[in-house]
Input
Amino acid sequence: MRPALKIAVAAAVTALAPACNLIHGNETTGQYVDDATLTARAKAALVKDKQVAAGDFNLDVYMGNVTISGTARNSEEAERVVQDIRNVRGVKSVKNATRVATNSEESKER
Output
């Protein structure tokens, strides 16, 4: 899959995931819109950082709290993703649920 398509699909999934909280009554429409906006800003921050493979990470935002999941190529990338997200205006907290790829996982992807 082309990188741009991967990013677009990941962004769409990430943006739609918070809708579950709205449907189940866990957040108001205003909170949902705020979280969707924050998700878009955070994803844009990852795309802007050329040292980060933005399509490899998923973001779940609930009431300004961001959980990052996915697989980083190395620990430096994982830390950079966390820093990129923390620098986004409106983020209250960041939970890092990423894992770092092992050498065998990296060779399979290439």
Q: What stands out?
A: Helices lie at 3-16, 19-23, 29-48, 75-86, 103-109. The mean pLDDT is 82.
